[in-house]
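Appendix B. Chain record.
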Amino acid sequence: MNICPLCHESKNIHYFKDRRTFLRCLSCNLVFVEREDLLPINEEKKIYDLHENDPDDIRYHEFLNRLLIPMNKYIKGIGLDFGCGPGPVVSQILKDRKTEVFEYDPIFNNNLDILNFEYDYIICSEVIEHIYETEKSIELLLKLLKPLGALGVMTSFYPDDMSKFKGWGYKNDPTHVRFFSEDTFRWIAIKYNLEIEIPRKNVVILKRKL
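Structure tokens predicted for this chain:
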């Protein structure tokens, strides 16, 4: 039985099938691929190694700014780029700001000491859709966040219309295995007593309360 990796409910529906089977949780609205469709980590890394996120690419900077601009008022103190990948792009963009940014990635920068501190803000751009253990990752991110700190997440919200989901290219990346909607993030906010902002499509800011 495929249990939802976010809320652990077993009530889910068959949502879509192509090369992989996609299920949607009836509790939190997360869409997820079946466990047997998850890649081993060595296969994941081979695909990540093909990505070309050039730190000097102005277009990639503009892409990240979709998240960083709405997060602007929270970017102060000490931050964490969670799932930074092989290149320190976020810290480069923020280098002129009065903030220090640490970087963590389970594959490319797995320095566990970084996970022993609390941060004023966390950037999580195009990461959460890759993580198999969704609940554990959410709880880890919130544990790393100081009270009143902000977690900025960017990921593509899945289309609720089945005909649009069928043609949605984002689902075709074999390393994309968890798909969120606004309702999913609102469920997360309620469960963990967070303030939530959705400043634009595909961008969510979750803020810890005191």
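Further analysis of this model is presented in Appendix C.
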